Amino acid sequence: MKQIAIVSGKGGTGKTTLSGSLSYLFDNHVMADCDVDAPNLHLLMKPETLEIHEYIGGKKAEINDTCIACGICERTCRFDAIRPGNPYSVDPYACEGCGACVLTCPINAISLNDNRSGVYYLSKVDDLPLSHALLDPGEETSGGLIAEVRKLALKAAEDEKRETIIIDGSPGIGCAATSSITGANYVVIVAEPTVSGLHDLDRIVQTVRHFRRKFGIVINKFDLNLDKTQEIIDWCKKENIEILGKIPFDPMVREATIKAEPVVINENSKAAKAIREIYKKIKDQLS
Ligand code: SF4
């Protein structure tokens, strides 16, 4: 089984547009939307939910009514998560679940409890399994939630004997992005020809290289700034990086997104033609 991750140095580069179209072109595969902070693949694919799982991302302290308001826990907490009162209380958004307050409370009035950080789903779009998730507001454990999304995709692929998992990765270079590319056989990096485009690309390339993944670059909306596109091409040449293709700006992409369709189904779209060529190159990389 092969896993392909589609990532970018920042959000809004057209990563999900490409993922949605690749999902249409590939067959016998599973989709995984690993952008758990702002998932949108399910909006494009309109799936039917089959399974819902709660994600426990850590622990939070809770103070019960036996609290005698001595204030020791407030002085102990390094995250300013304890609020004075009678009883004292815990600010769940500030609490890191370290447990220091539990250890210092003289009357054992504090407990550490499981904290739900998000939800993950297994859905189906016609015959296609899709795993996806949503991190709860204010939660920071997106890497762990992405691991659950990927496990669910892997299980669906094994159960249904699917050959490929296509991962719509998390943007950026943080924990969420690295969780999206870990173990992937090939990484497609989507770049854009903007002022910060090369800088964003450089950062994600360094990250992918750190994890020793095979990768190639796609330049989206390349014709909106030909100078910046040339800058990216020259840099890739210098760095010995393969450019899988360039997607032109195409109003049909927006129209397809509004209709919740992959742009690649439109034969007259110039973006669709470029994506079909990119698809062939990715297939070659996997063979
Ligand atoms: Fe209440 Fe225990 Fe905190 Fe004292 S240390 S304020 S008893 S919860």
UniProtKB/TrEMBL annotation:
Residues in 4Fe-4S ferredoxin-type domain copies: 59-84, 86-115
Query: What protein name does the entry list?
Result: Cobyrinic acid ac-diamide synthase
| Gene3D superfamilies to which the protein is assigned, alphabetical | 3.30.70.20, P-loop containing nucleotide triphosphate hydrolases
**Record GO terms (molecular function):** iron-sulfur cluster binding; metal ion binding
What are the entry keywords?
Iron, Iron-sulfur, Metal-binding
In its UniProt entry, the species of origin is given as Kosmotoga olearia (strain ATCC BAA-1733 / DSM 21960 / TBF 19.5.1)
User: Pfam families from the entry?
Assistant: CbiA, Fer4
